[in-house]
Sequence to fold (171 residues):
Amino acid sequence: SNLNPRDEVIALCLMSSGLDISDILNLTLEDVNHQSDKERIFITINRLKTGEIAKSFLSKEATVKIRKYIQNWRKDAPPNEMVFINVVESRKNIEGINRNTPILVSSVDFNFRRTCNQMGFRIKNGKQSPMRPKRLRKCFKSGCTRAGLDLDTIRIFMGQKSAVSKVYLGK
Fold:
C-alpha cells in the first residue's frame, strides 16, 4: 500500500463501517480496547455532524489492523485519547501541527489525494480524485446493498437521519 500505516487503517475502517471520516477520527482507545475479546469491534457513536446515533462495526480485517496499529503506535497512550493522532515530531513551525494532537479531516484527505497521484491517477477537468475518504462510505453502502440489507439498516450503520442520500445510492 502507498498509504502510511495510520491512513491505511483509517481507510479500512471507513470501508468496513460506513461511518464518516470525522466519526472514525473521533474513536478513542477506550472505544476499541474495551472489546479486546471480540472478533469484531462494534461502534456506537453520537455523530458530530447530525447528532444521530450511529451503530456500526468494523470488519474482522479492520479489527485486526486497528488492534495491531494500537499495539505498534499507541499502546502506552491513555484510554481517553483518540486512536488516530498526528505523529509528526518537530515540524510545528512548518505545518502548524503538534505531535499527539487529533488529526484533521483535511490531512487525511490530502494523504489520500497524494497517494492517488503516486499511483498514477491524474485529476483532469476539475474532477475529484477517486481516492477520497468520503468515497469509501459509498463502497460500504454498495456492499451492504449487494448483501441484501434494507435501506433502514444501512442508514443506521451510516448514521444518517433520513433515507440514504442519492450520493451514496450512486445516482
